[in-house]
Write a structure and sequence with these properties.
The complex is a heterodimer of chains A (580) and B (164). Chain A has 580 residues and is α/β, with parallel strands linked by helices. Chain A has helices at residues 21-27, 79-93, 110-117, 154-162, 197-201, 213-221, 235-238, 252-262, 270-290, 303-312, 326-342, 359-363, 383-392, 414-417, 424-438, 476-487, 516-519, 524-537, 548-558, 564-570, and strands at residues 3-8, 11-16, 51-54, 61-62, 73-75, 142-144, 169-171, 178-180, 207-209, 226-231, 266-269, 297-298, 349-355, 379-382, 456-463, 466-474, 495-499. Chain A has a 5-stranded mixed beta sheet, with helices on both faces. A 4-stranded parallel beta sheet of chain A has the order 11-10-13-14, with helices on both faces. A 4-stranded mixed beta sheet of chain A has the order 12-17-16-15. Chain A starts with a strand and ends in a 10-residue tail after the last helix. In chain A, 53% of the residues are buried. By secondary structure, chain B is α+β, with helices and mostly antiparallel strands. Chain B folds into 2 domains: 14-73; 85-161, Glutaredoxin. Chain B is 43% helix and 11% strand. Chain B contains 7 helices and 4 strands. Chain B has helices at 14-27, 34-45, 50-60, 64-73, 93-97, 100-111, 156-161; strands at residues 85-90, 124-129, 141-143, 146-148. In chain B, a hairpin with a 2-residue loop joins strand 3 (141-143) and strand 4 (146-148). The chains are: A alpha/beta (580), B alpha+beta (164). At the A-B interface, strand 7 of A face helix 3 and helix 4 of B.
Chain lengths: 580, 164
């Protein structure tokens, strides 16, 4: 590829032709501030934070979209630019609800950080009319507070371009422009799937999950309640970022210790239920293959994907595995098997889950998710909410010892922990399905073809003389592409794993927010996934069907995988929904 | 949150829908087809309620929100039908300084709708407009083709009563 030579702030820089000034500067270690820019997702040059001076150019240019040219001379930090950026920020603040002290993003708000960097010393410099909006609380999982919105359109772009949904957009024009849904419907009335990717990319406190941390503390303080927590695989791969650990640090031990100190009666692990899911789902797959059931079978762990399927591919809900998600399987076993054994009234159990996901907040309220006649899970919080809870309880996370989970629902295998990465459920299922089908032990447990953060992966395996075709998609835009190929008959699979968020749960809508500055130049999902694959490698047991706690559960309570009792408690049903 | 769906019942016919679908199929593969589709749709129905935008969304695969975003961006598109009696209040400079803002507010209060809307019975619709060329009569409003000038807020009840 042709190399272009230019100067940035007097330094010689070279970069491939077609690069933007921002990319060339980044390669040279020069930071240009951005706000609306999301690499490959929102490249609209709208916010004017990234303006630079180019010698010979009449006006300031937006570095995020302006291509480099041979011999170009660029300046990124002149007094004129600093003044321009400061003015841009002051103009944004002129119509921004500046209640920073009580804002959920205080401390990691990208607007706040830029104001600090550019010395915005008067937040009311431009006083005038301000818009006032009623926050939209209609969705189960989140709140939109447009008083904090800066109209960067990052949420709009991720919803439409990455997830292929497009239920939010810019309505009206000029000063009346507001991000919302068609006909000003509340988000809860639209076909929003609750993935929370909009929250993940929001630079300010305009979008945030519904917070249930106080309800948890109240339940723990109530002597009549038995409060149990489960943590999804990806939480341990993301939580550390909230406490200053580098991205990709596995903080499983400290997380378990923190949960115990918060005061949960039992600290269990969703990974245990992930192993259980594999037992049920692998059984369902083998059954469908042998008995001519509907194929391809598609995984049902991701509630964002499930809701997407119900809205956008209602004719394919038969393909969905009837298995509840690991979160819900956990809750079901907690309030039936565990409650019976321990002699606890399931009505007194408060079942709490910590998830990298916002759609889990929607999932707990779905029909047919109440094995004991009460909801399987009562409160689902995100990784971010757990971090808040830890801080609120005065726990010094970095000083905590490494602790383990409680028995029996804390025992898990490497197969369970990789659920958090795209391809992980597929790999875990293959480890079990292949051994069950062949009756022989696998030599190599890693299924490399289904690893990695590409949106769509395909593989074919010879298992006991049978060819098994599998595919993995993450991010709903990619899922749509894959499913359209399946529907047109162009592709033929037995088993498909779909995760709602790009890169899988490690990059879920409930994970710690990563500022666009970092996100634009980092494979966030890939780095976090490594934490899970390392965790898997370090486990003594790495196959779900070898999990002793799961074996015991079947022996003592459920019978066989796919048994009548398993179906009553661990399986669910789906509905068909409209698009709007 | 206040929904922006029209309160006037939708009376689209099968023929109109057929006509709209033909328009969409003619245009849908062209780049930038949404604007001409919306213009033709408004020609067919007179306005673009959710029912019409939903047909366009279903037929083109463009998300409903995106269509709504375009419709609310351009002043040429209406979300509400015109009433049997369409009231335009001039908010041009001369009328405005003579108090047409108060007239406009009074009409909104009296009819229970905001500018751009139509009463649920389909009788009155209300809009603001710029200069009708009768500044000497300011403040001015028009109801269909009838011009009312030198208005005061107290005139409104009597004028509306004429259309009962």
């Amino acid at each position: 590829m042709e190399t272009i030579h230019l100067k940035i702030n007097g330094l010689d820089v070279s970069a491939p032709a077609g690069s933007t000034i921002l990319e060339a500067a980044h390669q040279a270690g020069i930071r240009i501030p951005t706000l609306c820019y999301l690499k490959e997702i929102n490249e609209i040059g709208a916010c004017r934070m990234c303006v630079v001076e180019v010698k010979g150019a009449r006006n300031l240019v937006a570095a995020c979209v302006h291509p480099i040219g041979e011999g170009m001379e660029v300046y990124s930090n002149t007094p004129k630019l600093i003044e321009s950026r400061k003015k841009t920020l002051q103009l944004l603040l002129s119509n921004h609800d500046k209640k920073c002290l009580s804002c959920v993003r205080s401390g990691n708000c990208e607007l706040q950080q830029l104001c600090r960097e550019y010395g915005v010393d008067d937040e009311n410099y431009y006083e005038g009319v301000m818009n006032h909006y009623e926050p939209d609380t209609s969705a189960a999982h989140m709140i939109r507070d447009n008083n904090k919105c800066i109209l960067c359109r990052r949420c709009v772009a991720v919803c439409e371009k990455v997830q292929g949904i497009g239920v939010i957009g810019a309505n009206n024009r000029g000063f009346d422009t507001v991000i919302g849904s068609a006909f000003e419907m509340g988000l809860g009335e639209t076909s929003c799937v609750s993935c929370g990717q909009c929250i993940a990319v929001c630079p300010t406190g305009a979008l945030y999950e519904k917070d249930y941390t106080n309800q948890i503390l109240e339940a723990i303080a109530d002597p009549d309640k038995y409060v149990v927590v489960q943590t999804a695989p990806s939480v341990r791969a993301g939580l550390g970022e909230e406490f200053g650990y580098p991205m990709g640090t596995d903080v499983e031990g400290k997380m378990a210790a923190a949960l115990r100190r918060i005061g949960f009666d039992k600290v269990f692990d969703t990974d245990w239920a992930a192993d259980l899911t594999i037992m049920e789902e692998a059984t369902e797959l083998l059954d469908r293959i042998k008995n001519g059931g509907v194929l391809p079978l598609i995984t049902s762990c991701s509630p964002g994907w499930i809701k997407y399927c119900e809205h956008y591919f209602p004719d394919m809900t038969e393909n969905l595995s009837s298995c509840k998600s690991p979160q819900q399987m956990f809750g079901a076993m907690l309030k039936t098997c565990f409650a019976e054994k321990e002699g606890i009234d399931p009505k007194k159990i408060v079942s709490v889950s910590v998830m990298p996901c916002t759609a889990k907040k929607f999932e707990i309220g779905r029909d047919d998710q109440a094995a004991a006649g009460v909801p399987d899970v009562d409160i689902a919080i995100t990784t971010r909410e757990l971090a808040r809870l830890i801080r609120r309880c005065g726990i010094d996370f970095t000083m905590l010892p490494e602790e383990g989970f409680d028995d029996p629902m804390g025992e898990s295998t490497g197969a369970g922990v990789i659920f958090g990465a795209t391809g992980g459920v597929m790999e875990a299922a293959l480890r079990t399905a292949v051994e069950v089908l062949t009756g022989e032990e696998l030599g190599k447990l890693e299924f490399e073809d289904v690893r990695g953060t590409e949106g769509i992966k395909e593989a074919s395996y010879q298992v006991a003389g049978m060819e098994v075709n599998v595919a993995v998609a993450s991010g709903l835009g990619k899922a749509r592409t894959l499913l359209e190929r399946v529907k047109s008959g162009e592709a033929n699979y037995h088993f498909i794993e779909i995760m709602g968020c790009p890169g899988g749960c490690v990059n879920g809508g409930g994970q710690p927010q990563v500022s666009a500055d970092v996100r634009n130049f980092t494979d966030v999902a890939g780095i976090r996934a490594q934490a899970l694959y390392r965790n898997d490698e370090g486990k003594k047991i790495r196959k779900s069907h070898e999990n002793p706690a799961i074996k015991k559960l079947y022996e003592e309570y459920l019978g066989e995988p796919g048994s009548h009792k398993a179906h009553e408690t661990l399986h669910t049903s789906y509905v068909k929904r409209k698009v709007n | 949150m206040l929904s922006n769906k029209s309160t006037v019942q939708f009376h689209g016919t099968k023929e109109q829908e057929e006509q709209l679908k033909n328009v969409i199929h003619e245009l849908k593969d062209e780049k930038g087809a949404l604007m001409p589709i919306l213009q033709k749709a408004q020609d067919i129905y007179g306005y673009l309620p959710i029912e019409v935008q939903t047909i366009i969304s279903d037929e083109t695969g463009i998300p409903l929100e995106k269509i709504y975003g375009v419709v609310t961006f351009y002043a040429q598109f209406n979300l509400n039908p015109k009433g049997r009696y369409h009231i335009s209040v001039c908010l041009g400079t001369a009328c405005y300084v003579k108090g047409s803002g108060d007239i406009y507010n009074k009409l909104m209060e009296k009819l229970g709708i905001v500018g751009g809307e139509c009463t649920p019975d389909g009788k009155f619709s209300l809009d603001a407009c710029r200069c009708v060329g009768a500044c000497g009569l300011a403040p001015v409003m028009m109801i269909n083709d009838e011009v009312y000038g030198r208005l005061t807020v107290d005139d409104i009840d009597d004028i509306l009563a004429k259309y009962e």
